[in-house]
C-alpha cells in the first residue's frame, strides 16, 4: 500500500530537469476541449417541431492535433478557449442563430462545418503548428453532428 507523500520541494528547471528533457517525444498528439452555449433557432423547409422558434444548450467538442513543442505542448488549452471566445462563441451564445450565422439552414450539420472552418482558419492565421481533426456539435445530450478533417479536405 502506498502512503500519502507531501512534496517537500518542487522540481526545479536546470537543477532537477534540463530544458532539453521537457519534450518527451516528437509524436502527433490530439488534444480536446469542449464548450457549451445557449442559442435559439428554427429550421426552414422542415415539417416538424423544429420549424418553430426554439432553443438548445449546445455542446461543442474540438479535437486538435499537432506535434509537441520543445516543452511538450501541442497548443495551450487557454489558447483554444481564447479563439473560441473571441472568434466563434460571439456569433453563437445567447443569439438567434438564423441572424448571426451566414445564410444557411441552422441545422447541426451546417453549423458544425461552419464551426470547424472558423477554428481551422484561426489556427492557420496564427503561429500554431496544429490543425482541427474533428468538431462535434451536440444539439441535445444524445444527438450530435460531426465534421472530420478527412471529410472536409477530401470531399
UniProtKB/TrEMBL annotation:
Q: Tell me the cofactors it needs.
A: Zn(2+)
What are the protein's GO molecular function terms?
6-carboxytetrahydropterin synthase activity; metal ion binding
Q: Name one Pfam family in it.
A: PTPS
Keyword annotations for this protein, in alphabetical order, are:
Lyase, Metal-binding, Zinc
Pathway annotation from the record: Purine metabolism; 7-cyano-7-deazaguanine biosynthesis
Task: Report which reactions are catalysed by this protein.
Answer: 7,8-dihydroneopterin 3'-triphosphate + H2O = 6-carboxy-5,6,7,8-tetrahydropterin + triphosphate + acetaldehyde + 2 H(+)
Cited InterPro entries: 6-PTP_synth/QueD (IPR007115), 6-PTP_synth/QueD_sf (IPR038418)
Q: What is its EC number?
A: 4.1.2.50
* Family indicated by similarity: Belongs to the PTPS family. QueD subfamily.
- Fetch the PANTHER family from UniProt: 6-PYRUVOYL TETRAHYDROBIOPTERIN SYNTHASE, PYRUVOYL TETRAHYDROBIOPTERIN SYNTHASE
What protein name applies here?
6-carboxy-5,6,7,8-tetrahydropterin synthase
